[in-house]
């Protein structure tokens, strides 16, 4: 089995101005970058050119598709908007299919309220399954996000978040490695 580093990109799932999920995504990327067994990249959907005048594979962004094909696993940082997920995130995810099959995904919910995006994660679970992604058992939640970071986007109290992220990452890494090995063996 491969000893190459796992490639686990982080998708920032909203294009909105003033998004509080941006410092969360940057924190996650920063922490992942400190792990020598991993490679990562931030994919900000705000920077992708995704047409809206067709459907599915015809809308595929070549760079995004290539990153998803290369990925061993994914992290989606997604804010909860009225109990749901951003439409542009769903639109983007639907542009790929075969690129996701048998790959692990960790969901990171962000909200201004007390539940830390738990409802958006619930709504994304059937979508992930339909896309062929395998969700982790442990999610990452950022509650009351507006009070977690300073004006510069730095966590005010990083230790609890780092502990939770480490637990989340340990599971995602294990699942990504197991699924990569399975894909290499061709047993599915």
UniProtKB/TrEMBL annotation:
Cited SUPFAM superfamilies: Flavoproteins (SSF52218)
GO molecular function, one term: oxidoreductase activity
Residue ranges occupied by any NADPH-dependent FMN reductase-like domain in the UniProt entry: 10-135
Gene3D superfamilies: 3.40.50.360
Cellular component terms (Gene Ontology): cytosol
Top-level taxonomic group: Bacteria
PANTHER family given in the database record: CHROMATE REDUCTASE, NAD(P)H-DEPENDENT FMN REDUCTASE LOT6
Official protein name in the record: NAD(P)H-dependent oxidoreductase
Organism: Pegethrix bostrychoides GSE-TBD4-15B
Taxonomic lineage from the root: Bacteria, Bacillati, Cyanobacteriota, Cyanophyceae, Oculatellales
